[in-house]
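Input sequence (224 aa), recorded before submission:
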Amino acid sequence: MTVVTDVRAPRIDLTTVSTLTGYEDIAASIGLRAIHVAVEESPQSDDNGAPLLRASTTAVIRNPWVGTPTDTDLMPAAEHIAPLIAKLLTDRLVDSLGGPGTIAAFGKAALVGLAGEIEHASALIHTPYFGNLVREALEGTSILCFVDGQSAPGSSLRVPLWHKREASTRDYYQSLDVYLPGAPHENEIAVIAVASTGRRPHARIGDRTSDRPVTSEVLKGITL
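Predicted structure, token format:
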């Protein structure tokens, strides 16, 4: 698919503009049908001593590759669509959770409808055009953990998260259930970003940096 840019169209600097309102042009450009935002609050304290918040944001868009051959180059469209989705989703995560400084863990996901390929979902989240923008907006450096797949409308998806800068910090390994009412339709893709303001509730299994060395030697002399 070839993305044609109208040279007469006005240029917009989205690094300085919020997409919480007035994003009709963006929606039309990427075939956006809906955005879903869900916030979960737990009485357990987060890293800043406030109630723990976890949020998911989902953008449901028209799949631009439905009906194309399996050797179609996906990158031209992904380069246009993925940054805009990243901006829409991270603006809402930051707004819902109180700013990028309050966010401790993050993750991502994508589900493609039944008329598409899993690779169509992957094309929107597994390139720098999405991941780098999510990391920058949420002030992270870790690779984003993820899940992707193919689904009919009305599915639930369990999205993993880990620490946004220290991915091996086990206390932040967690998952968030995301329900997709009426999405994705067979010709759609649902793209998801999730974040948390703290660690897993009641985390107490230690950390990889302080674990003692463990090998198959522990299997010797097992008492049952």
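Checked by second reader. The first strand starts at residue 32 and ends at 45.
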